[in-house]
Structures are given as structure tokens and as C-alpha cells.
Amino acid sequence: MLLAAMLLTMSGLRAQQQITPNDATFSQYQYPFPVHYFNLTLQGNALRMAYMDIPGRQSNGQTVVLLHGKNFGGAYWDSTATALSAQGFRVIVPDQVGFGKSDKPAHLQFSLHLLAENTHRLLDSLGIQKAVVLGHSMGGMLAMRFAIQYPGTVTKLVLEDPIGLEDWKLKVPYQDVDKWYTAELKQNYEKIKKYQLESYFHGQWKPAYDKWAALQASQTLSPDYPKVAWNSALCYDMLFTQPVIYEIEKIQAPTLLIIGSLDRTAIGKDRVTPEVKATMGNYPELGKAAASRIPRCRLELLEGVGHAPHMEVFDQFIQLVSGFLKN
């Protein structure tokens, strides 16, 4: 066990030495599709919100909006966006403010309501009045808030292992933003890969995942990293304190809920006793409970899959999504 840990540390150090530093907005990293910018003024901050706009081949006249998770920007939707575009969908992939190529404000009160409003304003600017909304992890939590906040905009809703299917505040002691920030400043490639390995991929690492761990780690090597860490801390506080679970009965759109059977993601479970930890993040049960409360919801439980089906079992994931969107 000790030898395995030492080998993992050594390989992590070697990998980190090969990573090129990236600034707060990934200026040195090329996204899979052209990036555009939408200007916002939020709480006195003049900000740019990055997004990709991929036209559908032989357009079917429909739009899909892809909402990323907390540990990624929109780039990790590359395969999903390509597949949906090939099926005729126009695909909009925003980087939320504080993530990816979007600006990282020094002073901003983050809320899911605000991120939903930013996304809606972006769609308005593009002349998009109706859209399918697909969100993963934090993006799934945001997608639920968006669907509740803008029911007339969402034609269909796809939730891929959304976080926030339980209220962590009921079990986990509060941790202020400064403590989140201190923890985020200590991030590096080794810690990021370890977290993704355990939380996303249930101990099964594939070489294809390396680029995403390396991309996230690349910002930790930049002088800009405190900006990124501060925004990450603000978002952790947002996710912990703003559960959507109490309002999901208000979701009106037909909904596909995709759940990995091995997913056990829960914010703060490292700050509770083993007994309490064992009661958190049971996604199969949380998924069943959520599906029973969302009025028009179909639950798909993927056996042997973790927190990121679109990365782990893409063919299975896109088949489910495509079938749901055709019906």
C-alpha cells in the first residue's frame, strides 16, 4: 500500500513537471471549437463570459445548452457537442463566470440564480428562446435552477449525475470561504488526479482522463492561480448553501436523469464521522427519490459507472441522450 502511494506521488510529480502553466482564463489553451465572449456587468464588475457556439449540421432548428461541472470548463463537452451537432442541434457551451475562459472576479456574490440569469441573458443575446438544457454535476444543479427560474425556455432537461440531490447542510458543519480558499491554494496535479480517480472514476483511470486533470492542474502553476482558487472557494460556498432539492417539483420540462450506480459524490463528507459519511452521496437512492418528485422524469441508472458518464461511457451516454431528444 505504501509502495503504491509512493509510486503515485512520483508519477504525479513527473506529470506536474511536464504541465505548461495556464493563466486564469486559459489563454494558452485552445478549446475544441471557436470561443466567443458575452459582456456582462455584475455587481460593479465588467466581465466577459466565454462560450462556444457550434452550428448543427443540416440544422434541425433546435438548440442544446451544455452546462459544465465545477472542476471543468466547457471544453470537456467536446465529444458530446460534436455528436449533438452531427445530429443537427445547435450547441451552446458556456463557461460560467469564474470558470474556464471566463473572467474570474475578485468580488462577486455567487448564486445559482445569478449563473442561471447569466446563461439566460447569453441565450437572449443569441436570439435563442427555446432550448434543451443538459447539465453535469454542478451544471446539473444549475440546470435544475435554470429550469425552475425559466420554465418557458427549457423544452427538455437532461441531468447527468447532478450534485445537490441532498442538503449537505443537514449533516456537515459549515466551512467559511476563507477555509475553502486555503484548501484550494494547496491543489496540484497529484491531488486533482487523486480526487478525480476516487470521486469521478471509482478507482478506474483511463489515459483519456489525463488531459483534463492536467488542464485543471495547469492553472495551479500560474501566478494567476489565487484568482482561480478564490472563485472556486466562492462557488463551493454557493453549492453548499443553496440547495435546489426542495424545489424540484416545480420543474415542468420532460426530464432525463442519468445516474452512475457507483457515484458517491457529496460536498463536505471529509468533515463528518465515518458513520455520517456512509449516509451521504448514495446516488442510486438519491436519483430514485429525485425522479419520483420531478413530474415528468425518466431515470436511467448506469451500472458500474461513476460521476461522469459522458467521460466514462460516452457511447452509452450519448445513446440515452439522443433517444430522449428524438422522442
Q: What can you see in these coordinates?
A:
InterPro entries: AB_hydrolase_1, AB_hydrolase_fold, AB_hydrolase_sf, Epox_hydrolase-like. This is Alpha/beta hydrolase. It comes from Chitinophaga parva. Strand 1 and strand 2 (45-54) form a beta hairpin. The protein has helices spanning 2-17, 78-86, 112-125, 138-149, 177-185, 189-200, 210-218, 225-241, 274-277, 283-293, 309-312, 314-326, and strands at 35-42, 45-54, 63-67, 90-94, 131-136, 154-160, 255-260, 297-302. The radius of gyration is 19 Å and the shape is globular. Mean pLDDT is 94; it is low at 1-14. It has 12 helices and 8 strands. 40% of the residues lie in helices and 16% in strands. With 327 residues, the protein is an alpha/beta fold. The longest helix has 17 residues, at 225-241. It has a single domain (2-326), classed as Rossmann fold (3-Layer(aba) Sandwich), CATH 3.40.50.1820. The chain has an 8-stranded mixed sheet, sandwiched between helices.
Q: Can you summarize this structure?
A:
This protein has 12 helices and 8 strands. The chain is of the alpha/beta class and 327 residues long.
The percent of residues in helical segments reads: 25-40%
Provide a count of the helices.
12
Number of strands: 8
Mean pLDDT: 94
Strand order of the largest sheet: 1-2-4-3-5-6-7-8
